[in-house]
Design goal:
Shape: globular
Structural class: mainly beta
Radius of gyration: 20 Å
Oligomer: single chain
Largest sheet: 4 strands, antiparallel
Distance between the termini: 36 Å
Strand order of the largest sheet: 4-5-6-7
Number of strands: 15
Number of helices: 1
Helix content: under 10%
Length: about 210
């Protein structure tokens, strides 16, 4: 496997081969030979945080990390990264990380086979500010929290498993689930197949073949 390099540019996180951006004017902020990052954010002090999910082959990924001296360091540290910790007390499949106007580091953790889906928010010093774990009325079987946005005291979370929007009011500690399994929030298999067939047809046409693929 080629060396993977983390690039921070335009609020984007990706680990790609160093040769792919040589001379492109991008700044290398951290490198990792083992783990992938799928999200990036910065706090008010300019510190960089990464979501680094424990996908297959990367089970010991820290889940959430902060860049220090050019390398991702587990954040907030301690039991949050210990495989022996209970699912709701450790970071595993962190799919998104954000800093909003409250200055906290928010993370969406999809958990694992044993459970552990949650939203967590940490102060920059690593202390826990919020820990939100929802029951089956909000997260039915098959639900998978994917990303979040925050406006004032309300947190909005997308469910990419079943399709749905979760709204949590931090001030009132009230949670609602809306648009569950709504067609607008789910992939239409027929449209997906049609889109793939159209893309393949255009590729074949560009190569000089005219028949529509099945």
């Amino acid at each position: 496997m080629t060396r993977r390099t983390l690039i921070a540019a335009a609020a984007m996180a990706s680990i790609i081969p160093r040769t792919a951006f040589a001379g492109a004017g991008l700044k290398v902020v951290a490198t990792s030979r083992r783990f992938l990052a799928n999200g990036i954010t910065t706090d008010a002090a300019g510190r960089i945080y990464l979501s680094m999910p424990s996908w297959t082959g990367m089970e010991d990924s820290p889940g959430l990390a902060r860049v220090e001296d050019g390398a991702p360091v587990p954040f907030p540290g301690g039991a949050w990264h210990d495989p022996a910790s209970a699912p709701l007390g450790r970071l595993t499949t962190v799919n998104a990380v954000h800093v909003f106007d409250d200055g906290l580091i928010w993370a969406v953790d999809q958990g694992g086979p044993e459970g552990g889906q949650k939203l967590v928010a940490f102060h920059p010093d690593g202390t826990l500010a919020h820990h939100l774990a929802f029951g089956p009325g909000i997260l039915p079987e098959g639900a998978a929290m994917n990303d979040l946005r925050k406006q004032g005291g309300r947190v909005y979370v997308t469910d990419s498993g079943l399709g749905g929007i979760i709204l949590h009011d931090l001030d009132r500690n009230v949670t609602l689930r809306r648009l569950s399994k709504h067609p607008l929030l789910r992939v239409d298999p027929s449209r997906w197949r049609s889109a793939r067939a159209t893309a393949r047809f255009r590729m074949l046409r560009a190569r000089g073949r005219r028949s529509m693929p099945t």
